[in-house]
Each structure stands twice: as C-alpha cells, then as structure tokens.
Design goal:
The chain is of the alpha+beta class. The protein contains twelve helices and 27 strands.
Length: 494
C-alpha cells in the first residue's frame, strides 16, 4: 500500500512539472551546493590599471676600476720595443738606473650595471620605496616610470635589518599608491604583485596569502604568498583586491634560485614605520636591552618550573647594558614587555626594537619559580661588542670523572689572574668539550658560574652538586663567555 502511495505522489509531481513546462514556466531543483553559489576566478585588470602607473623599475650602477693585468715584469714585446726605439733596456726592478718612460695614467672608474629591482611611488613629490638590498652598494640609482621617463634617484636612507629603503626623484604630480591595512589581510585571500623579474618591466603575477606572521627575519614577521616572485621583483608592491599595497615583495624560498611557490613580503605597516624614520633622519632608531635570547622549549619550561612554553629565555646578559642595569639574569624568562605578551622569543626584539630609545618600560619575567617585575630604560641598538676569550692557563686540578662522564667536560679552577681579569669571585673553567656539552653549545674557555641555579665557585663544588642531581632530567648551566653571561640547558648522559 505504501509503495503504491509513493508511486502516486511521484506520478502527480511529474504531471505538475510537465504542466508548468507546457505553460512556459522554467524551474530548477535547488540543492545546498547550488544555493551557496560558485565563485569565479578574480579579474585583475582593474587593479593593474589602478596600481600599475605607481610601480617603477630600479636599476643600479656601480663604478668599478679596471684591474691592471700587466703584471710587475714587462713582456718580451715591450722589452724589444724599448731596445729598438730607445737603445736602452726597459726599466725593471732589477735595472733601476735605466731611463723611465712616462707612466700611463691610472685607469678611470667604469660604470657597470649592478642590478635590477622594483619599487613603488609613496608620494606625489617623488619618494619611492624599495628594498634595501636593491640599492645597497650602488653608486647610482636610476628610476624608470611606466611612461618610460627616467630619473636619477637620491638614496634617502636604507635599513638593512628590515630590508626597507627610500629613494627620491625630482618629479611632481606622480601617482602614489594607496596603503592598505595588514590586519585586515586574511590567509587564502587573493593578492597580486607587479615588478620587473629578470628585467621584464611591469610584469603582473597573482596568487593567495599562504600564511601571516611567518618568522624568517630578526625584526619582522613576513607575509607568505604563492605569488610568483623572481629576481627583479624585489622592492615591488604586494597588492590586495582593493588595490591597496599590503607588503613589499622581498624574499623567496628556492633551491634553484627561481620561484618554487613560496614568497615572502614585508608587511606594509612595518615598512611605512621604517620609511617615516628614514625620511625624517636618514636612519632608524631601535630600542635594545642587551640580552641574548632563545625559544622556551618544553624541556626548558619543565626544568624551570614554568607551566606553559611561552616567553623569551634569557641566555646571556651584556655587561653595562640596560638589561644588566635593570637586574636581568641569565635563566630569566621574559613573559611581558611594556605590558605586551611575549608568546615566542622572536616577539621580544620586534617589540623592543619598535620602542624609542630612552623610554622607561617594565619587564615581567619568571625567575626561580615565581613572577617578578623589573623597571628598565630602553637603550639604543648598537653593534655587538667582540667577544674576548678568557686567558688560558694550565689547570690546577684534574677534571672530575663524574663531570666528564655526565656532561662531557674537563674543567679546572680559575686562577687568581683569570678571576681578576673576568672580575669574578669564582667559577670553573672549561678545558675540553665533548658530548653532550658540545651539543648544548658549551665551548672551551667558558666559565661555569652555576649549575641548576646554584653557584659553583670551584671544581669541588661542581663535583658535589653533580652527584646530587637527577641525571634523568635536563640541567641548567650558567656560563660566562668573554664579557657575556649565558644560560644553557644540557641533557646529561646516563
């Protein structure tokens, strides 16, 4: 009975559809898939017309002095020339009394093409943004606009750490780009690049955002895309579908030198921040603390009693630095700087670097099982000081077999002269290094100051402490290397 009813309903539905078709009505069966609709591929033509006039080609020229390939000794033909026309031998180092001919003038520098890159117009009065590596070492920079006008450019400033540079051309009424909001950029969003790969001007490529906040730089996290980027694209803009610049194409990942599907762009908000300083002063001021940092691994977190693997592990503190003056110590884990959370170690140099030198800030850290907050005055970034090794001396005591077997070290007490030079009350000098100490980065000449947060003024104290420790767990070591105190973690041999 139910089967016959279903047939009747199906037959009735069929008659209704046939009747509607005869009356001229069209219909379609709506399914969930068709209800959502299918999006077609984007059309980039309007974006090219909008942004293309703002993208420039950048050529750099280097002045090179031709090498003198004549050598010190004259060749046989030149010697014969002097004998025939002057009747005397050619002057040589072995015959200084021979008459000297007039010396030819020194070779003049020759202009040679150095490289090709891209850039984009920041303002109508001729400021152009590009990569620092595009103009680095150039004696002359030439900027060519899409309308084929060419200008000699002046380098306003270049910052190698962010790879951002600003150059200036003498022109007005130029079409400037529109700056976008990187925070609105989403993974999977379509983006486009315009540049001069291999010198091919105004080449357009497109793709999607593959990832954001990709840590490949010291002071910047990059936008990763699959947009085809090749040599010559450097410095060109990465553009969203609203025609706004969201990044500067800067790097690629490649094993062949060509595009392999992974490209990186500098976020435009960071680039603009750098460019503003370059335009104002020609250089970038960055804050610094004077610490060596590392990622907090699960092993380190467990050894220090930290519940979560977050923050930046302080491995070393520079003498006389803002960090030392504030009281930071190797082994501290910085959790917050100026109220900003440090999720991973790479967050710290970026946040501190963007802080104006001289600013009074605060650091929240984890030390010996508890939270601590320290005030600190941010210093200005400067070049790292060269590291001096501790003076070598003959060991006063033989290495302990326990220390050698467990840590892979042979050690000795510091001499009085070494203590005076390093300004230390005590410590244990590392004489030789083997596994597992070498894997932890310990080097010959290092001075062990503490083991598991307990001071080790001499070999005997280190040996006594080693005998009490649990060898199944990672052990923390505080060492002195030159002018730096550093913190490391070692996994003992059982």
């Amino acid at each position: 009975m139910a089967h016959r009813l279903a047939l009747k309903r199906s037959f009735s539905a069929g008659l209704l559809c046939s009747a509607l078709w005869v009356l001229g009505f069209s219909f379609s069966i709506v399914t969930p898939a068709s209800a959502q609709g299918v999006r077609g591929l984007p059309d980039f033509t309007e974006l090219v017309e909008l942004v293309g006039p703002s993208v420039v080609n950048i050529r750099t020229i280097e002045k090179v002095v031709p090498r003198d390939t004549s050598g010190n000794e004259p060749d046989a033909e030149m010697q014969e020339f002097f004998r025939r026309f002057f009747g005397v031998p050619m002057p040589t180092p072995n015959n200084p009394n021979a008459p000297k001919p007039q010396r030819p003038s020194r070779p003049q520098p020759e202009e040679q093409p150095r490289g090709v890159g891209s850039g984009f117009i920041l303002s109508a009065d001729g400021f152009v943004m590009t990569n620092a590596h595009v103009v680095d070492g150039a004696d002359q920079v030439l900027v060519t606009l899409p309308d084929k006008r060419e200008f000699k450019a002046r380098i306003v400033g270049a910052d190698k750490r962010s790879d951002v540079a600003v150059v200036k051309i003498e022109a007005t009424g130029l079409p400037a780009v529109k700056i976008g909001d990187v925070n609105r950029l989403k993974v999977g969003e379509w983006v486009m690049a315009i540049g001069s790969p291999f010198g091919l001007d105004n080449t357009v490529t497109a793709g999607i955002v593959s990832a954001k906040q990709r840590d490949t730089g010291e002071y910047l996290s990059f936008i990763q895309t699959d947009v085809a980027i090749n040599p010559g694209n450097s410095g060109g803009p990465l553009i969203n579908m609203r025609g706004e610049v969201v990044g500067i194409n800067s790097q690629i990942y490649s094993r062949s030198g060509g595009f392999m599907g992974i490209s990186f762009a500098i976020p435009i908000d960071e680039a603009v921040r750098v460019s503003e300083q370059l335009r104002a002063t020609g250089r970038v001021q960055r804050g610094r603390l004077g610490v060596q940092i590392d990622q907090v691994s699960k092993e380190v977190a467990e050894s220090l009693g930290l519940a979560k693997t977050q923050g930046a592990l302080v491995r070393g503190v520079e003498q006389g630095s803002p960090a030392e003056k504030a009281g930071l110590e190797p082994g501290d884990i910085i959790l917050k700087f100026d109220g900003k959370t440090i999720d991973k170690s790479t967050d710290l140099p970026r946040i501190v670097g963007n802080t104006k030198p001289g600013t009074r800030s605060s650091i929240q850290l984890w030390r010996r099982g508890s939270h601590k907050e320290l005030p600190i005055t941010v210093g200005e970034f400067e070049a790292d000081k060269p590291v001096k090794k501790a003076a070598a001396a003959a060991p006063e005591k033989p290495a302990s077999s326990v220390i050698t077997q467990v840590l892979g070290l042979t050690v000795s007490d510091l001499t009085d002269a070494q203590k005076k030079e390093l300004k230390l009350r005590g410590g244990v000098r590392v004489d030789t290094v083997a596994e597992p100490a070498s894997r932890a980065g310990i080097q010959e000449g290092d001075v062990i100051l503490a083991l598991a947060n307990i001071e080790t003024p001499n070999v005997q104290s280190l040996e006594t402490l080693m005998a009490k420790l649990d060898r199944s767990k990672a052990i923390s070591l505080l060492i002195r290397r030159g002018e730096w105190a550093q913190y490391t973690v070692i996994r003992p041999q059982r």
